[in-house]
Amino acid sequence: MAETQKAMFGAGCFWGVEAAFRRQDGVVEVTSGYAGGTIEAPTYAQVCSDSTGHAEVVLVTFDPTRISYDSLLETFFALHDPTQVNRQGPDIGSQYRSVIFTFNANQHAAATACIAALNASGRFPRPIASTVETAGHFWPAEDYHQRYLEKNAGPFCR
């Protein structure tokens, strides 16, 4: 296997986002967690208070010989409404914001180019609200959030 790379996305509640990225051929691992905030090792309760600045995110480990970063971006934009600010569906707060955390200049350029192309395409009725930010520290979510939809039946985000 080739050397893996990392990508990180916030697209609302991480349960459905994690499950969707896991289904992508070439994705090696997906971990739900928190990024972009101001405190270390936040808990779910702290993040849900909308006071830490963290977003619910997924850290995607992928094999770039099997799936491209651009393909991951396509998945990201297909998963949610990237025109909404600080919400996805019934989930409201900055922890549910649409955000792409980038690990290098190539990812940053690809993400900003993708947003520009989507805005120019007219695919969405409003401008893309997703932000592109430099990846900082990633904090894995509590164990019960990992593979949540695989472990829990019910009418959750799919």
Provide a quick synopsis of the model.
The protein is built from five helices and eight strands, in the order βαβαβαβββαββα.
How would you explain this protein's 3D organization?
With 158 residues, the protein is of the alpha+beta class. The protein has a single domain (5-151), classed as Peptide methionine sulphoxide reductase MsrA (Peptide Methionine Sulfoxide Reductase, Chain A, 2-Layer Sandwich), CATH 3.30.1060.10. 29% of the residues lie in helices and 25% in strands. The chain contains 5 helices and 8 strands; from the N terminus they run E-H-E-H-E-H-E-E-E-H-E-E-H. The strands form 2 sheets. A 6-stranded mixed sheet has the order 7-6-1-3-2-8, with helices on one face. Helix 1 packs across helix 3. The longest helix is centred in the last third of the chain and has 17 residues, at 105-121. The radius of gyration is 15 Å and the shape is globular. The N and C termini lie far apart (30 Å).
